[in-house]
Write a structure and sequence with these properties.
Elements: E1 2-5, E2 8-11, E3 13-16, E4 22-25, E5 32-37, E6 43-46, E7 48-51, H1 52-95
């Protein structure tokens, strides 16, 4: 992917460099140079640049393909979840139905018979 902007050409690139290196700081603010340096800031090698357009297209194609393959599974999972939520709501509604209360008259506890006096 390449386009002109002002007096510069911008191009999307994928870079490869050894894992124990970092890019040199560019004189352009926020930019990096393709020079690969080690932790002591010693020049180690140049980074290898690859066309980024092909990589972006490959990643986008893979994401699209995964989306097409996964879509039916995601849809069926959402349908199952929706029915589960509905069932749960129906169960909750059933248990929240008020139960009529029965009033029971209070009964005083039985009193023991008073002691009987014997005649002598």
């Amino acid at each position: 992917m390449e386009f002109n902007w002002g007096d510069s050409i911008w191009e999307l690139m994928l870079t490869k460099r050894p894992s124990d290196t970092h890019f040199s700081q560019s004189s352009t603010s926020g930019g990096k140079s393709p020079l690969a340096r080690d932790d002591d800031n010693t020049l180690n090698t140049h980074a290898v640049l690859f066309d980024g357009t092909k990589t972006v297209l490959a990643i986008a194609g893979t994401c699209f393909a995964l989306g097409v393959v996964a879509a039916p599974h995601v849809k069926s999972g959402l349908i199952r979840l929706k029915s589960k939520v509905r069932r749960r709501a129906e169960e909750t509604t059933d248990t929240e139905t008020p139960v009529p209360l029965t009033v029971v008259a209070e009964v005083e506890p039985e009193q023991p018979d008073p002691p009987r006096l014997r005649a002598v």
